[in-house]
Amino acid sequence: MKKKYWLGLSSLLLLAACGNDVSEEMGSGVANDDATVKIGGNFELSGGASAYGTPMNNAVDLAIKQINEKGGVLGEDVAYVSYDNTSVAQEAASVATRLATEDQVTAIIGPATTGDANAQTPVIDRAGVPAVLPAATGDEVTMKDGETVWEYIFRVCFQDSFQGEVLANFAQNDLGAEKAIILQDNSTDYAVGLSDAFRSVFKGEVVDELNFSDGDTDFNAILTNIRDKDFDVIFIPGYYEEAGLLINQAREMGIDQPILGPDGFANSTLVELASAQNVNDVYYTGHFTPNSEEPAVKEFMAAFEEEYGVEADSFAALAYDAANLVLQAIETAGTVDSDAVTEAIATTTDFSGVTGTFSLDENHNPVKSTFVIEMQNGEEAGNTVVSPN
C-alpha cells in the first residue's frame, strides 16, 4: 500500500479504541533499557495513514505479548518500543533513527506506507538494523537504484506489479474477459504501476483508458463516456476513497460489469461510500481473508478482537506476520546481534503465517500466494487463491 489515506470517523473510533496509549511526544510504549531483546515499531499512529498504522502497531504488540506468555525469545521477555511517525516521511526517518541509536533495538517493524518506508531506508542502512515492512508494496522498496538489494530491508507483502498481473490473469482466465476499460488515478505512482502491469499481461483489448485524480468525487463524465461501450470488466487501480464513489456512481448509472481493484480497496469505507447494495461483482487483491478456516487465522482473529475490541484487517495480519518473522529469526540466530538476525531473516524459508506460507527471495520479497476477494452486496462472498508463477 502506498502513501495516501483518509482518516474517517470509523478510523478515529478505531484509533480511540487501540490498545496502546500514544503519548504527547511520539511513543506508544518505551522498552526497558535493561531488556535483552528489543523490537521497534515505526508506525503511522496519527495522520492520514493511521487507519493502517494503528492496527499494524496493535498486531505487533499482540505478537510480542503472545511470545512472552510462552516464555519469550532466547529465554528472555521481548520488550516492544514503538513511536508515532505521524504519517510524515521525515518523522518516519526520525523514528527509525531514535529506535536504532537511542533504543538500540534489534529490528524494526514498519512503517506502513511505501513513502514512509523509503524515508527510513537510509537510516536503516547506516545503522545496520533490519526492518521488516508489513505493507509497503512499491516494486523498488527493497532495491537500491533498481539493481542492488538493500541489505537490511525486507517485506512480507506482495508487490504492486504482482497484483496488477494477478488481476489481469483473473479477468481473462476466471471472468472470461476479452475487453477491459481502465479508470486510473493518474496522480499516484501506485496506480500508474498497477495499470502498466495489468496492461502488460492482459491479452484482450483495452477498449479505453480514462484518468482521474486524488480527491475527485464526481465521476459522471468519465462514466458517461464508457457507459455505452462494449467491454467486459473495469479495472480501477486506486484507493478506496475514489473507488467507493466510482462504484456507487457506476452502479447507479446502470453499469453492471465486474469491477477489479488492488489492495487499495481493502477498507470498510469503500462499502460505506459505494453503499452495500452497489458493491456487487467487485473483485480485489487481498493479502488475507478473515473468513479463512485455517486454525491459526481463527486464533489470531479471536485474540486480536479480544485484545483491542475490533476485528483484525489485512494490515494487522501482515504486521502480525512481520513481527513473528522477526521473533523467529532472533531465535534462529541465537543472538540479538542485528547482522546475525538479518541473515536469519534473509534465509527464511517456508514461514507459516496468517497471510500464508512463504519464503523470501534474493530481493527480500516473499514468494507467496495472494487472494482475489469477491464482494457481493458489500460483503466478502468468496475468494480465489492465486499462486506466483
Number of helices: 12
| First-to-last CA distance | 22 Å
* N-to-C SSE string, H for helix and E for strand: HEEHEHEHEEEEHEHEHEHEHEHHHEEEEE
Sketch the major β-sheet: 7 strands, mixed
Contiguous uncertain segments of 5+ residues = 2-31
Topology:
Blueprint: H1 9-16, E1 27-29, E2 37-43, H2 50-69, E3 78-84, H3 89-102, E4 107-109, H4 114-127, E5 131-133, E6 143-144, E7 148-149, E8 153-155, H5 160-174, E9 179-185, H6 189-201, E10 205-212, H7 220-227, E11 233-235, H8 240-252, E12 259-261, H9 268-274, E13 282-286, H10 295-308, H11 314-333, H12 338-346, E14 351-353, E15 356-360, E16 366-367, E17 370-376, E18 379-386
Parallel strand pairs: 2-3, 2-4, 4-5, 5-8, 9-10, 9-11, 11-12, 12-13
Antiparallel strand pairs: 1-3, 6-7, 13-17, 14-15, 15-16, 17-18
Helix pairs in contact: 1-2, 2-11, 3-4, 5-6, 8-9, 11-12
